[in-house]
Write a structure and sequence with these properties.
Blueprint: H1 5-11, E1 16-29, E2 40-54, E3 57-66, E4 69-79, E5 82-104, E6 111-131, E7 145-163, E8 168-180, E9 185-198
Antiparallel strand pairs: 1-2, 1-9, 2-3, 3-5, 4-5, 5-6, 6-7, 7-8, 8-9
Length: 199
């Protein structure tokens, strides 16, 4: 009887699970970091659905939606001996849908480490406009514009499942993906904490 206990503990988490997570979205785009208006950090939330494929192997599909980050860049414009200070504003949000395969290492007590790899579908929404003080001639204010780009990005990660009971787990994790879109490339780093329920 005693020799069957590890197998029972291992199988308790072999099944379908759903998780919700909170993460920090750390964005680093190509170019000079001192002038890059797309870099930034923001909080976000995610939801994922997964299932075990085989002992120690999982398949997971997740959606991550971070908050929008905003960069304000002041510049001065002179017109007819008058100086106007404008604020160029850039907002962006990289949302993603990610499919991952996880290999679960041997469980140590209540903790089990997972190693993840897969592919993300990235949606980068960018908005550009200019804030100007009252009385600024309209000719000095650029027209606002926005763009939406899509691309795929390889993704890797590592997590640690900490069991609370047979169904509930707390899962701290770190996900990373590198992307290249039409005119920008960069890296997303997303440390997170998830609550997972296994059915």
């Amino acid at each position: 009887m005693g020799g069957a206990r590890p197998a029972l503990a291992q199988s308790a988490h072999d099944g379908v699970y759903v998780s919700v997570s909170a993460f920090v979205d750390i964005k680093r785009f190509s170019g000079d970091p001192a002038t890059n208006v797309l870099d930034g950090q923001a909080f976000g939330g995610g939801i994922a659905l997964g299932t075990s494929l085989a002992p120690r192997w999982d398949l997971e599909l997740g959606v991550d939606v971070p908050a929008v980050t905003t960069d304000l860049h002041p510049r001065s414009v002179t017109l007819r001996r008058s100086i106007f200070t404008l604020q160029s504003r850039t907002r962006n949000r990289p949302s993603s849908v990610t499919a991952l395969i996880r290999f679960r290492g041997a469980q140590r007590g209540r903790v089990q480490i997972g190693y993840l790899g897969g592919l993300s579908l990235l949606r980068l929404h960018r908005q550009f406009d200019t804030e100007a003080p009252a009385g600024t001639p309209a000719a000095l204010i650029p027209r606002p514009h926005e763009s939406v780009d899509y691309g795929t990005a390889p993704a890797i990660g590592v997590d640690a499942r900490v069991d609370v009971n047979a169904h509930l787990s707390i899962v701290p994790a770190l996900y990373l993906s590198a992307f290249s879109l039409q005119d920008v490339s960069g890296v997303l780093v997303r440390p997170r904490v998830a609550i997972r329920w296994t059915f």
